[in-house]
C-alpha cells in the first residue's frame, strides 16, 4: 500500500504544536502555491488561528511566476479556499524577462523577494513556507551529490533569514519541516480539499525530480527520507558546535572580525570591540592560526575572506585548497581568493581587500 494511503491526517493537537511559538507575532505571511503541501499549510494555520482567542493575522500570498498557463487558475483556487476558511489572500506576479538558464533558482529568489516585499508592506517579519521532511531529505541528498560540507548537509533550518532580503530583519519559518508529505495529503483528503498538481514536479530536466527517483530506490535499501532528515539534524548539531568553536577563535585571535548569522547566534567575545568595516584588513597571529584544529582554522579563514573580499561567498573547495597551500607554506605566502588577498608571514596571517584586477577597477566600490 502506498505511504500516502497509510498516512494518518494531522490531529488538532499536532497542528497546534506546529504553530505554538508563533502566537505572539502580529502578522504571518503564508506562502501558498496551491500544491498539496502549501494548501495543507493554509488549512492547518487557519484551523490553529481559529482556535485561538488572540493571535497573528494570517495573510496568504501566491506568487504567479508567469511560467505556466495553469498558474492563474491555481492562484484563483487558493483565493477561493482562503476566503472560505477566513484568511486574507493576495496574488503577486513575477514580471520581467526570465533567464534561459538557472530558471528554478531565479524563480525561487524572485519568490522570496516578492514575499519579503509584501510582508514588509503588511508589517510582518515572518514568512511561512510548507517545506516538509521530504523536501529536507531531497535537499540533503542534492547537497551530498554536489559535495557540500557539514553545513550544507545540515539541510534547511526551521527558522532562517529570508533569502533575497538584505536587511536581516525578515525570517523564513518552516513549521512543517519534520512532517512527512504523505500526512499532509492525508489531512487534505480527510477535509475533502482539492489541490493543484504541478506537472513540472515530474519534469526530469530538473535535478530534484531526478533525485526523487533515486530516493525511491534508496528508501528500499533503508535510506529513507526520515533517515536523511535525521542526518540533517545531526549535521546541524555538529555544525553548531564547530561554529561556536570558531566564535571562540575569533574572540581569542581576531576579535574585530564580524560574526555571521547576525541575530541568529551571538558572537563569543572576551571584551566589547568595534568590528572593522567590511573590506578592512584582518590580522590573525600566525602561530595561533597554525595551532587551531583544521576545521576551525578553515572556517575562520573563510569568515575573514568573506568579510575582506568583495566577490561573495567563498566556495568550499577553493577555500580548502587555499588552506592546504597555507598549511604547506614554509615561507612568505601571498594569494587571492574571492576578492581577498591572503598574506602569511612568520608573525601574522593578513586578509584584506585584493587590489582591483585590470579592467575591473571601475566596478569596485
Characterise this structure.
The termini are far apart. The protein has 365 residues and is of the alpha/beta class. The chain has helices at residues 3-6, 12-19, 36-50, 71-84, 103-122, 133-145, 150-153, 181-191, 207-220, 225-253, 286-291, 294-308, 316-328; strands at residues 27-31, 57-64, 88-93, 126-128, 159-161, 171-173, 282-285, 333-337, 340-344, 348-353. The radius of gyration is 23 Å and the shape is elongated. The chain has 2 domains: 3-234, HUPs (Rossmann fold); 278-365, 2-Layer Sandwich (Uridine Diphospho-n-acetylenolpyruvylglucosamine Reductase, domain 3), CATH 3.30.465. Helix 4 links the parallel strand 2 and strand 3 (88-93). 45% of the residues lie in helices and 13% in strands.
Describe the structure concisely for a colleague.
The protein is of the alpha/beta class and 365 residues long. It has helices at residues 3-6, 12-19, 36-50, 71-84, 103-122, 133-145, 150-153, 181-191, 207-220, 225-253, 286-291, 294-308, 316-328, and strands spanning 27-31, 57-64, 88-93, 126-128, 159-161, 171-173, 282-285, 333-337, 340-344, 348-353.
In whole angstroms, the N-to-C terminal distance is 61 Å
The radius of gyration is 23 Å
CATH architecture descriptor name of the largest domain: 3-Layer(aba) Sandwich
Roughly what is the average pLDDT, rounded to an integer? 89
Shape: elongated
Please describe the biggest sheet, giving its number of strands, its sense, and whether it closes into a barrel.
6 strands, mixed
